[in-house]
Design goal:
The termini are close together. A hairpin with a 6-residue loop joins β5 and β6. The mean pLDDT is about 95. This protein has a 5-stranded parallel beta sheet with strand order 2-3-1-4-7. About 50% of the residues lie in helices and about 15% in strands. By secondary structure, the chain is an alpha/beta fold. The structure holds BIS(adenosine)-5'-pentaphosphate. BIS(adenosine)-5'-pentaphosphate (AP5) binds next to α1, α2, α3, α6 and β6.
């Protein structure tokens, strides 16, 4: 299975990608996680990406496309779920070219639909594990022990771009630069729209039904 999880910031891409990885044995490729790791390790890519990410802007296409192609080649024959890529028409076109070269067309692009008010609620309460990437929420998915990751025991973080001003900017960037990509995949006939409000497991079942 080769899929893309699409949707605005906070729509649950990371949460659902992690569950899909477990259920279907997929490689989970999150450009956001890869970029955050690069920032933490102060690599050349990380130093370039940090200022964009902190403000909630998109990192330039050439940087992100290079990362995605690299990961795509490294997964070999395993199925995959891309989370947060592509986010511009240029990225979608470059992704299609890379997939065609490898003869690995996408099966589906799953679009998680959530209203802005709920997105703001989710992002402002989110905490993430800097070590294994597991997402939490102060109300809807608290860790068993306050501030500590259930999976690996690392101390949870409040992301810089989950502060109010950056959240507002990310939603505007999504509307202007990323939402137009939906029409691109609708034209290819592989877009699946999912109402992504409700229980996390319930949403996973809606996705699984749309994929099977
Ligand atoms: P990225 O990390 O991809 O951020 P994002 O798209 O803004 O998405 P999020 O990670 O914020 O949210 P999500 O949809 O994964 O939701 P989650 O599952 O965590 O990218 C960060 C930055 O990197 C970008 O701003 C950009 O600068 C750069 N970047 C990355 N990719 C790029 C690209 N392709 N091109 C250019 N730049 C790129 O859930 C959110 C919260 O809600 C959690 O607390 C969770 O527990 C909770 N939650 C989840 N589901 C539910 C539910 N059903 N009910 C209640 N709460 C829920």
């Amino acid at each position: 299975m080769r899929i893309v999880l699409f949707g605005p910031p906070g729509s649950g891409k990371g949460t659902q990608a992690s569950l899909l990885r477990e259920r279907y044995g997929l490689a989970h490729i999150s450009t956001g996680d890869i970029l955050r790791e690069a920032v933490a390790n102060k690599t050349e890519v990380g130093l370039k990406a940090k200022s964009y990410m902190d403000k909630g802007e998109l990192v330039p296409d050439d940087v992100v496309i290079a990362i995605a192609k690299d990961k795509l080649e490294s997964v070999g024959d395993q199925g995959f779920v891309f989370d947060g890529f592509p986010r511009t028409i240029a990225q979608a076109q470059a992704f299609d070219r890379a997939l065609a070269e490898l003869q690995k067309p996408l099966d589906a692009v799953v679009n998680l639909r959530v209203e802005d008010e709920e997105l703001v609620r989710r992002l402002s309460g989110r905490r993430v594990c800097p070590s294994c990437g597991e997402p939490y929420h102060t109300d809807s998915k608290p860790p068993a022990a306050d501030g500590v990751c259930d999976k690996c025991g690392a101390e949870l973080l409040h992301r810089e771009d989950d502060r109010p001003e950056a959240i507002r900017n990310r939603l505007a960037v999504y509307a202007n630069q990323t939402e137009p990509v939906l029409a691109y995949y609708e034209n290819q006939g592989i877009l699946k729209n999912i109402e992504a409000v409700g229980g996390i497991d319930q949403i996973l079942e809606r996705i699984a039904e749309a994929l099977e």
